[in-house]
């Protein structure tokens, strides 16, 4: 875990997120806390991660998501060398 982000404010934000009880509540909260572009960027990265796990090519991913190769590369680096956060969430979604 990156110690630079482990602050009381970030912890409070995460605790607030854990209080959300539905997708509709997530829409309400994230529309207030993020700009539309920030939210779309986050969702794009998440879709890139999903597609990389499905062994899609950078070209396929770029065409479907509109993500740049730099973004795809950053997400791929997180999947390979990060904290396994993408994998944890994607695995849990697949279990549902």
Automatic annotation (TrEMBL):
This is TrpR YerC/YecD. NCBIfam families: yecD_yerC. It comes from Coprococcus catus. PANTHER family: LMO1763 PROTEIN (PTHR40080), TRPR-LIKE PROTEIN YERC_YECD (PTHR40080:SF1). Pfam families: Trp_repressor. InterPro entries: Trp_repress, Trp_repressor/repl_initiator, TrpR-like_sf, YecD_YerC. GO terms for molecular function: DNA-binding transcription factor activity; sequence-specific DNA binding.
């Amino acid at each position: 875990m990156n110690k630079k982000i482990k602050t009381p404010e970030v912890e409070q934000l995460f605790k607030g997120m854990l209080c959300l009880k539905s997708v509709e509540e997530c829409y309400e909260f994230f529309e207030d806390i993020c700009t539309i572009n920030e939210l779309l960027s986050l969702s794009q990265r998440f879709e890139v991660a999903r597609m990389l796990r499905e062994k899609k090519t950078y070209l396929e991913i770029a065409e479907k998501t509109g993500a740049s190769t730099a973004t795809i590369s950053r997400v791929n680096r997180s999947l390979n060398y990060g904290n396994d956060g993408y994998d944890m969430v994607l695995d849990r979604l697949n279990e549902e």
